[in-house]
Amino acid sequence: VEAVRPVRNAPPQDATAADVPAVTEVRGDPQRLVALAPGQLDALCALGLQGRVVGTAAPQPSYLGTVLHNAPPVTDMQAARGANPDLILASAGHGLEGFGALSAIAPTVFTGPAPDWQKTLRTVAAASGRSGAADAILGDFRRMAEEAGRHNDATHFQASIVQFTENTVRVYGAANFPASVLAEVGVDRPAAQRFTDRPYVE
């Protein structure tokens, strides 16, 4: 009999996650994975499970290249069913439909907002039976961040996060992946860039 493990879902963030229960029960070692949010793909790749991904939200992040072996896009419920998954990873704003419709296809686990990448990694790892691997990844990350901060006198510097687009310049706040990395290293942000109520200003 395959062991059942409870996996805690992220609290509901919007209407697409309104019916998400506190816990989803997942059995065994899922082999066919559908991931509907980019952060979940990052987590699966970090855990070495990219070969099990049978469907993703479209488009896939370009920086992943072909690491996902050109997994087909899942853009509607028919495609989700056709992927024949044994685990679906979704999130508020990225789920095709609510929890009930997705969980009728396969056990479904919801992760939180994109900036909470460490929580996303832990949730994906718990759902896929790889919690120990997530602990190791995050432990290594924190050690490297601490070392980088110490060797570069990080606490005496500030850094901006800026993106140059075709028509404008975006200055990012504190609720995003690069900002979280800078915080772990110990680099401060300019006072005007510590906002968390929106991703960026132009």
Properties at a glance:
alpha/beta; 4-stranded parallel sheet; 3-stranded antiparallel sheet; 6 helices; 17% strand; globular
Structure description:
The chain is α/β, with parallel strands linked by helices and 202 residues long. The protein contains 6 helices and 9 strands. β7 (162-164) and β8 form a beta hairpin. α1 packs across α4. The chain starts with a strand and ends with a strand.
**N-end to C-end Cα span:** 55 Å
Return Rg in Å: 18 Å
Structural class: alpha/beta
Instruction: Give the integer mean of the pLDDT values.
Output: 90
Instruction: Tell me the number of strands.
Output: 9
Placed side by side, the strands forming the largest sheet appear as 4-3-5-6
Strand proportion, as a percent range, falls in: 15-25%
Q: How is the main sheet built? A: 4 strands, parallel
Helix content, binned percent: 25-40%
Report the principal-axis shape. globular
- The total count of helices amounts to 6
Oligomer: single chain
